[in-house]
Write a structure and sequence with these properties.
Catalyzes the removal of elemental sulfur and selenium atoms from L-cysteine, L-cystine, L-selenocysteine, and L-selenocystine to produce L-alanine. The protein is of the alpha/beta class. The chain is built from 14 helices and 17 strands. It is globular and about 70 Å long. Bound molecules: pyridoxal-5'-phosphate.
Amino acid sequence: MIDAAYNIETIRKDFPILSREVNGKPLVYFDNAATSQTPQQVIDVIVDYYQRYNANIHRGVHTLSQEATDAYEEARIKIQRHFNIAKPHEVIFTSGTTHAINLVANGFSSFLKKGDEVLVSAMEHHSNIVPWQMLCDRTGAVLKVIPMNLEGELIMEEYHKLLSEKVKLVFCNHVSNALGTVNPIKEIIDAAHRAGAAVLVDGAQAAPHIKADMQALDADFYTVSAHKMCGPTGVGMLYGKKEWLQKLPPYQGGGEMIAEVTFEKTTYADLPHKFEAGTPNVCGGIAFGAALDYMNSIGFGAIAAYEHELLQYATEKLLEIEGLKIYGTAKEKTSVISFNIEGVHPYDIGTILDKLGIAVRTGHHCAQPIMDFYQIPGTVRASFSFYNTKQEIDGLVEGVKRAKTMLL
Ligand SMILES: *Cc1c(COP(=O)(O)O)cnc(C)c1O
């Protein structure tokens, strides 16, 4: 049961966008897995930054620059604490998960040779497939896939069989954005380490629901996008173990990432600045910290319990619709439901739902291999957040029924 202290009405009031209308209907926002909405507390931090202390950081002697630098570095510490990261300089600010993954994939070019193997899971986001394919093209390493079953769970026996001394890297998401599956990430990491491979965990879809502990998980890299957890777009985190970050070459050259530059030779700045070339998204970084404060003020335990109840309720109600099939029925799931109605294109359902003010995602969700696996063009995906309600889910179920009658 949901904690009585969980006050959904108060929480909803924090999100101004939730009181707007779409097509003359109250907005029902069920596209949280693509991006989450922003509470007033975070919007205030963004406005305050531009009204009071907008400046470039780490460079100026003046007060504004000092204040902006302090706030930005304070946000780094908030991120460090939230994910229980050992050292603040193991937190690299990036523009998001995609940037973080490319940074690592690029750096690994120098560590891989022909015949080495790289494992990715069958349920990755394109941003966790394409950079590795590019890496394998550059190095001659071979990309192999950890298969999944029809429920949308990784087949762990196959994973253990794939691990050998040839495998240098394993890439896996903590939670699948298309199916909501929570992967047994600790087992994946420990087994990879026993085989001598490094592990990058794509945490973009997990971070809004699960407070991951970096020291307990022991992943070598972990990536997060702030915009999926109440923060702004264009900012995120790459966590990397210090030993790896020291070994990896810089990704981009520019200002801020150097120690000394002459035309003959440049030496690089210490961590984290080595990977933070150019002027970063200062305001975004500060707002990312505020978003973590906001989510922690509600509490990840309360969020998980509430969202689980929404997931169960929606699963039950949707399955009452004849011809509706849910893709991704893993035992461990976050509040994501991917579904189709037999004989109807997902896009058409999404369009009708939009007319009713209900925002869902349709298509392949940047995970085409999953769609190929199920031999479907795409799905309708409804993803719930801690600010959604059962009444909204009732509206979704009614909307899907209506779409079905209109389209069949
Ligand atoms: C959203 C998402 C990404 C990409 O994140 P960006 O913020 O677009 O860089 C990668 N992996 C997963 C699992 C995601 O959900």
